[in-house]
Amino acid sequence: MPRTLSNLKRKDLFQTQGFIAHQWVDSTSGSTFEVRNPATLDLLATLPEMNAEDTNQAVQAAYEAFKTFKKTTARQRAQWLRRWYTLCLEHQDDLALILTLENGKPLAEARGEVLYASSFLDWFASEAERTYGEVVPPANPSQRIITIKEPLGVAACLAPWNFPLAMITRKVGAALAAGCTTVWKPAGETPLSALALAVLAQEAGLPAGSINVLTTLNKVNEVGSALCENRLVRKLSFTGSTRVGKLLAQKCSVNLKKLSLELGGNSPFIVFDDAKLETAVDAFLLAKFRNAGQTCITANRVFVQEGIYDRFAAALVERVKDLRVGNGVVEGVTIGPLTHERAVDKAVSHINGSFNSCRYIVEAANLCLWNRCHL
Q1: Which of 150, 189, 262, 278 is catalytic?
Q2: What positions constitute the catalytic site (predicted)?
């Protein structure tokens, strides 16, 4: 039987509200949006469609919390992060199930992401206690130059839907370790994972206002603009498309907000004649099919040297035949659904346009068209 939300051991990890100032809240407008399972299109939850007003409330809560949070010791922040890390590991199965239901990736991959996401909390817990300053040799012998590192303030953390757990902890872990308070904006397609993380962060003892979570699907531009334009937000971190990254950079430039961007990938996969065939095929399967090809480092084109081409292509087709496409919560499935209908249309277009030019595409492609949501 496919696993569902009823299989959660901790039901409170499934939250359907935003999180501001240590309170679970609805949107000020009362508007909502739906989160659906991409494998079945079944409704998972209805969440608040938050807007600029909600965003400013979250920023204000984070700003007020920063006044005291910045004074906490590095050791105290490290202890909170380690406790959060431990809780994530304790509830790995529940976090993985929520992730698979809203994102679609197979449970095995989702469990791997929980471990990956948790590792950032462990890492930054250690880094918190290594926030060293420097002693700089002065030009004037009568002077002494010492630098110290201080937290910036409120940090906005914008995460994508393809790794909704790991991209939150990687950003938020760093911010909290440094002494910054945070406002999270998870992707509207996958907000449930971030909300589950917030439950565990709260349980770990992080102070009120140090984490705030905004949920939105249709007001993304409005919420993003509010985060860029609010002067209380001192740092913004975004992982996503190059197009959106450029827009955020433009908006943040108005008040010279510090900005970290991790944008769309462009990843060729190259196989030379002297490559070990099995190693090359294994590497390609990981590079191309992980998370149904929805990663920033997914191989988007393959260059194979002539001498190994036929052997590589034949071996790859045989391995692709072993892949099992389906609902990620079903045991044995290795490729889940694409998250967006537009991604399906694009993939179908690529396949249809390649039948006349690629010798091996027919056998692989026909295996995957079992459902409009899967490819």
Answers
A1: 262
A2: 262
